[in-house]
NADPH-dependent F420 reductase (Actinomarinicola tropica), 436 residues
Amino acid sequence: MHIGVLGATGPAGSGLAARLAASGHEVIIGSRSHERAVEVRDELVGRWPDHALVIEAGDNQAAAGAEVVVIATPWDGASTTAASLVEQLDGKVVICMANALTRMGKEFQPLVPPRGSVAGNVQAALPGSRVAAAMHHIPAKELGDLSHPVESDVLVCSDHASATDVTSELIDSMPDMRALDAGSLALAAPIEAFTAVLLQLNVRYKTRAAVKFTGITR
Amino acid sequence: MHIGVLGATGPAGSGLAARLAASGHEVIIGSRSHERAVEVRDELVGRWPDHALVIEAGDNQAAAGAEVVVIATPWDGASTTAASLVEQLDGKVVICMANALTRMGKEFQPLVPPRGSVAGNVQAALPGSRVAAAMHHIPAKELGDLSHPVESDVLVCSDHASATDVTSELIDSMPDMRALDAGSLALAAPIEAFTAVLLQLNVRYKTRAAVKFTGITR
């Protein structure tokens, strides 16, 4: 698949870009700054010479031209970035991986965006696109560390069955990840918020935790 | 430990009562109706003769007299039940396992109670108690099926370290369960809401899913 990643210069976006490219996809990374995208692309390609990553550096505009587009910007920029690319994203599957979180002292806590979830706001900004929410619970550093696979179940939700399908296919193409259909975009609210719990566990147990569900045979 | 379970005639409460009794605790089950508590106690003891369960049947008033008290009522009755027992519960560890959920068509969706979580409302109703939120994600039927252990990580959060400790000890006493400290009671909101995702997965994959976190050595 040809995948664009908006906001790919942050840890989650660059980690995902590397992991997707290592799994055989053509990736174009976008950023508000083209130079910054070039820097990050060069870092990723230089860090993993054995993987011969195919990553193109663009700006968000260019990345939004891909077949499937991931929004990996900070959560408070997700829907404005989406809105600025409404024409390029029309008709496409758009995957939102942002979480609205804040740090209160030593603790991560979830924030509730106006429509309940970041993905809900993105879908509202992109009425002609098919938005899926996914990949919230995978530690960004683990995503970007190509020396080993990331063993994780990955929850996907969307109001469009075809978006759930495409997103799940993408997830399943990454070794040891398993996509699970978690229902409509209404479920993006608890899925996004739960990321605060994961971060909390990481702080408390000095680790990078991921989620697995027992009892599910897919 | 001597544990009281309020609202123990529902599936979650009766399942937990059976599991706790099978793990060697003395359990007193409460209900608004003493007769109903007796019925449920007799059902549990009759169903698992080999476990020789020590379960006493009381009403909520009697169950609130125990050393540690679990609130397993329906979510919309949790804080009013708690408020009616404020004196009995004063100074105690109170474990809230309720989730505010609704079913929209075929889908479970979380509701947001006024203080963000049911446990937050219960703590507000019980200013002299130490409230912990825990045991939201274990399928009720699995809890109550004593023919096999429930392999699950169990998230615990509280504003009182001693409540997290006591609750964790209780959880760790049940075979194959592992308590994890998920921070302050602010985290009850995403933990409770995430139950909707678990139920959604159960519907979608016709299973009873539980959660495990990879990468955590406790």
